[in-house]
Structures are given as structure tokens and as C-alpha cells.
Design brief:
This protein is of the alpha/beta class. The chain folds into 2 domains: about 150 residues, Aspartate Aminotransferase, domain 1; about 260 residues, Type I PLP-dependent aspartate aminotransferase-like (Major domain) (Aspartate Aminotransferase, domain 2), CATH 3.40.640.10. The protein contains 15 helices and 17 strands. It has a 7-stranded mixed sheet, sandwiched between helices. The chain has a 4-stranded antiparallel sheet with strand order 13-14-17-16, with helices on one face. A two-stranded antiparallel ribbon has the order 1-2. Strand 5, helix 6 and strand 6 form a beta-alpha-beta unit. It is globular and about 70 Å long. About 45% of the residues are buried.
Amino acid sequence: MRAPNASLKTKISSHFDVESIRADFPILDIKVSDKPLVYLDNAASSQMPQAVIDRLVRYQTEQHANIHRAVHYLSEVATREYHQARCTLQQFINAKEEREVIFTSGTTDAINLVMHGYGRKFLQAHDEIILTTLEHHSNIVPWQMLAKEKGIKIRVVPINDHGELDIDAYKNLFNSRTKFVGLIHVSNALGTINPIKEMIDFAHQRDVPVLIDGAQAAPHMVIDVQDLDCDFYTFSAHKMCGPTGIGILYGKAALLEVMQPFKGGGDMITSVTFEETIYNEIPHKFEAGTPPIAAAIGFGAAIDYLAGIGIDRIGQYEGELLDYATESINAIPGVKIIGTAQHKTAVVSFVVDGIHPHDIGTILNQEGIAVRTGHHCAQPVMQRFDVPATSRASFAFYNKKTEIDALVAGIRTVQNIFL
């Protein structure tokens, strides 16, 4: 067995107080099968720090009311806090205007909003949409629905054996019928970081709008939508130390203004008669009904928590964990990492010779180790690598090297049981 690089141990322990950070996450103290929890399923959902839990409790115990619909004290407080959460998200992604941030139930909901609000209004028969092999199902299925409804063609960017997009092939897919591009920023299945700025620039040279699925990018790197110049960007709170059921759609104001609403109901209108409805201004036009007020406020608290640590520092530390994990897992005979892109976030998908990923996950769970097994809602990726599924370990800034050592020991235990 090849020993992990000693320099990685030094780097990980020298500049990042992971033990202090772990103390912020009460769930990390629990035991599974009488063993300490090793939580390595962060690409699915990250854990929540006490600061966010406390903020949710404070809202529910001191500030809860419906927003925008009353002049009493609690409603005014809740409305103010909800608005502040939107401003926090605006600053986090450097959106030009606060009204460009739409609260949704998550990334999937945001993509569907764009499909209905933009795609159904502006795309027509024989138009073409470009997606990539790396897409999560949430950025495939809605566009397939639209394609079937309208007679639109979907064209797909291939990937190489490392799990990287073929950028030349991407450029060659464009023609006069190309009307929309949907790109994942970071692959949830492989961790590949795509060169989206270059891809956005190329699309814009041809006047084609671009939606970015940033669910796996926003937790790990600085997002500047003005610098990227993307038309739409989406991500979810539950992968960023926040609550489930809340996410955002960023959209350029000029596009949001001409889009049709996805959902109809209260609060997304200026006036309603049985003859006509006049829609509200953005962002309210896309937030029908009572919004997830508590979740939005919790999302803002999660962003404040991450910003307090520093997204750059988080990304650097997680990169060191990725290097250590990659080297450690590569040293296990009979184990192969799927997805070896040069630029990755802290995700390691792997297969073990002769053992199904579900069996791997089951045995690791008995060791207190939580990983994700399956196709990760990215079946085209699995088909590309000719595997039915992988085991995926995904790291967050509260993970540590000893947990990677536990994962390696757990994989060896799996091999000892099955082989």
C-alpha cells in the first residue's frame, strides 16, 4: 500500500481549525452502530451548524407570522427578515439587483421555473437545446418534457474518460437553431468542475442564453454571477448547511421581466378580476402563495455562517481532503475511482471489483460511515462509464483526515467480507 503524502497531513492540520468547526455541528457527535458517525454524504445534503438551528428556533419562537399581508408587528418583522435573507443571497452571488434573486423550493424547482417561464414562452418547434452528459436529472427531465411538447431537439456534450467535457464538441453543437444551453457547474456524480465562463462566453457570442445548475458549486467556491455573465444560476440551501425545501434562482432582471410565471396564486399579483390578472413585479411574480419564510431566513443564516469561515478557505481545505482521499483510495487494490478530472470539488466516486455499491454502502454503514450509493440522479454518466452505480464519498469543511482513514479501512473491511 502506498502511504499518503506526508505533506498533505501537514497542510491539512496547519491552517484550518477543523475541530473548532466540528464543534458547531451537534449531529457529528452521534454514533451509528456504536461507532462515531463519519458523514461523507455532503453532496446529497450537508449538516446544519448550531447557529442556523438557533436562528430557525428564534424565528419560530419570536418572529413567526405571514409576510406582506398585515401591518401588525410580527408580520412586519417576518417580512423584514425574509427580505434580509434575499439581500444576503444577492450579496453572496454578487447579483446586480436584489430583485434578481427568486426564492424557490430548491434547484429542481428553479430549473422547472426557467423551463416553464422562459422555455415554454420563447422556444418553439425545431429549436435546439444543448445539455451535457454530466447533467443531474433535474437539468435533463424538464427539458425533455419541453422537447416532447414543442418538438425541440436536445443535443448533448460528450465527456472524456476523465469525466471532463469535450469543449470542442460543445462548440460544434451550435447552429442557427440553438436557442438555449443548460450546464452543470460541478458534477454531483464525479466532482468535475466545468469551464462554464468560457462556455457562457461562447454561447453569448451567438446570442444564446445559459442556465447554470450550481447546486454542487455554491457550497465550495465563490460564485460571482456578474463575472460569469450567466443568464440564470440555481442552487439549494440543504447542500450549504441550510434547511431543506429552499433554494434560489438568480436571473438577469431583463429576462425575468419578460418570462411568464410558473405558478399562479396569491402574492404574485398586483390585481385580480375574473376578466384579467395583472402580475406583480419581480421577484414576487415568481413567488406565489405563502413562501418558505423560516427556511429562507435559515438559508440566510447558513450563508452568513459560511461567509464567516470564508468560501475560499473552505474550498482550499476541501481540496486538500480531496487530494488525500484520492491518494488513499487509489492505493487500495481492486478499487477504481470514476471521474479523474484535473479540476474537481471534494467528491470521490469509486467502484470495487466484484462488489455491488449497495453492498459497499451497507457494510460501511455498519462501520458508522455514511456514503451515497447508486446512480446519483446522473444515469447518463453511469452509462458513459459502463457502470450501474458507484459509491460516492463527498467531503465538507467539517470532515477530517481521520475520517478518510476510516473510509479506507471500511473499504478494506468490505473486501474482506465479500472477496
